[in-house]
Amino acid sequence: MHEPGWAPLTGFRVAVTSARRSEELSALLTRRGATVTSAAAIAMVPLPDDDELRMHTEALIASPPDVVIATTGIGFRGWIAAADGWGLAADLTAALSRARIVSRGPKATGALRAGGLPEEWSPDSESSREVLEYLVAGGISGLRIAVQLHGATDDWDPFPEFLDELRAAGAEVVPIRVYRWHPAPRNGAFDQMVLDIADRKFDAVSFTSAPAVASVLMRAGELGVSDELLSALRTDVHAMCVGPVTARPLVRLGVPTSAPERMRLGALARHITDELPVLRSRNIRVAGHLLEIRGTCVLVDGEVKELSPAAMATIRALAQRPGTVVSRHDLLRALPGGGTDTHAVETAVLRLRTALGDKNIVSTVVKRGYRLAVDESPVGVA
Q1: Which positions does the record tag as DNA-binding (predicted)?
Q2: I want to staple 353 with a disulfide (CB 3.0 to 4.6 A). Which of 34, 167, 268, 359 is the partner?
Q3: Model-level pTM?
Q4: What are the structural domain ranges in the chain?
Q5: Architecture of domain 13-41+184-280 in this structure
Q6: Tens digit of pLDDT for each residue in 239-262?
C-alpha cells in the first residue's frame, strides 16, 4: 500500500509548557509530525533549599499525623528524598507509618509501598473528590491530616477547595507542598510563547500541571494580553491538558479543554495526535480535489502543499464560507502585515494557486473577488 508522505500532526503547531520531561513530550509530538515550540512556564524551587518543606517535615516527625494523603508518586518520592538529604528520612517514615494512609492513584501507591508505607485505600478513578468523600464519610473531625501536594507557586495553590473541604469537615490540615514553583523568568522564551498563543500562532498548547496553566494566565496579564489569550484559547488554540486537575483553572474561565483518559505523558501525546486533526483541520471538495486545511499547510488529495503565511491566510479566509465570493478588501484584511494595497491580494492568490498545483481550485469572480470552486458542501468542518 502507498504510504502517505505526512504524519498525523503534519502542519500543526503545538506549544509545550512543561518544566519536567518537556524534551520527551516534544519528541513524541515531533515524531508525529508537529512543529513544536517548548518553553517552561515554571521554574522549580530545589528541594534542599525549601525551608517550608523542611519545617513541616520536622513538625510531623515531632507530632505525627492521624491521616496522610499522598496525591502524586513523584511528589511523595521527592518528599522522602528531601528528608533523606536532611538526615530525616527514617524519622519521617516512622512518623507516617503510625497514620492511616490514603493514596490518590497508582503512582502515589507505588511510591508509598516503595517506602514501606502500605495504603489503607485508593480510588480507581485517581480522583481527589473520591478521596475527600471517602475520608469525610468515615469522619475526620478533630483529626490531623497531612496532605502531600505537588506543584504550588508562591501565590497559587493547586488544591484550595480540597483543603478547604477537609477543614470544613473538622480536620486540621497540614499541607506538604513538595516542589514549589516560581513563574518562568521575564523577557525570555516563555514571554514570547505567551504572546504567540495570544496571537493564535499555535493550533494547540499542552499543559502537564496546573501551575503551568496559572503561570501562563499570570504572565498574559503582566504582558497586557489576557483578553487576547483567553479569546484564542476559547476558539483557535486548543488547550490539551494531562488531566482534570491541570485543566481546572482554565475550565473556571470558560476555556474548553480536553484530556486523555489516563493522566500520563504518553497518553497526552496520543490524545493530541488523535484530537487535533479533528479540531483544527477542514476538509473541502474543490475542483475535483479533496483539500484538508491544517495549521501551516494544505493537503491536496493527500499530498502536502507547504504555503506561505499569506497564502495560508488567504485560503483560510476563502474556506470560512466555501464557495462564497470573498472581496479583495476582505482578503486584504485577512493578510498578515496590515497592508492597504489590494495588489497584495492578487499576489497572494497567484502564489496560492501555484502552491496548490491547480489554478482552478481558486476561482476569480470578475469585479467581485475570489471563491473556492467547491464541488459540494464541506465534508468535514471543525
Answers
A1: 281-374
A2: 359
A3: 0.74
A4: 13-41+184-280, 47-182, 282-372
A5: 3-Layer(aba) Sandwich (3.40)
A6: 999 988 889 899 999 999 999 988
